[in-house]
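Why show two proteins at once? Because comparison is the fastest way to build intuition. When a single record is shown, students tend to memorize it. When two are placed side by side, the eye starts asking what differs. So, the first record is below.
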Amino acid sequence: MIRKTYKDKNTTFTPLYKNLLAWQIADELAKSVYKTTKTFPKDETYGLTSQLRRATLSVALNIIEGYARNNKNEFRQFLRIALGSLAEATYLLEFALDQNYLSTNAFKEITEKRNRCGQLLWKLFQSQTK
């Protein structure tokens, strides 16, 4: 579940959650969504754009918060929440595609990251059993 050690250019301290592959992909997903939603209609700023951004950002944030609790059961609970946020993002991406706010290529690219993130999150969740 761990990719190569994450190197932070700006500090000598690197939080350990950054070594989790699930977090790394969730981070990439959130950044892709933020970049892509810049082209959404302005009247969606406080609607779909905001909701999609919050859902994908929530995935990475819940991994961080759960990891910081340093308790396996709490970590599992936060991973459950992250999985729920990922499911929410899935619907929102499909909705954005249906509304023609996303190109097919952008949808495919983000969905591939979303799927990879889901696989890794699920494996991480399962690895935290008693």
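Second record. Ask yourself what differs from the first in the token line.
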Amino acid sequence: MFREFAFLVLTSPICFCAWEDVVALHKGDRVGVVQSDKKRIEGRFDSATGSTMTLEENGAIQSLSRDQVVRVYARPKVNRVARIAIGAAIGAVGGLALDASVGQRFRNEGKEIGGALYGVSIGAGAAIGAVSGGGYKTLYQAAVKPTAVKD
């Protein structure tokens, strides 16, 4: 008995999400839906009631009943390319600060490392921007229906 309970607990995704989180969305929010037939729809949220939700996918309105919905998630607001560009810009500013301080010290010794400082700083900023944030946030996940386990 305990093994079956432990198995269900350990294999069930932890999500403190309710359908009310879907109903509370604003029109135009970027969302994705995984349906019970394993199909995925991504688009803009239109509306939701206690039993249905509606979203716009490529200009077409899709209406789904709550029974069809396995998971609803919010898509990131800033895509990866934009995060890389922002990270690279921050890295360039960091490279400028490093060149003004550390670079000046090396120039006094007769060595020029400004290009390397900028390259490393921009690359590090772009890498951090690529891996940071932007994850999908689960808003609703249907309850897992436990199945009988036979010994």
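One difference worth noting in the second protein: The domain at 2-75+136-141 is CATH 2.30.30.100 (SH3 type barrels.).
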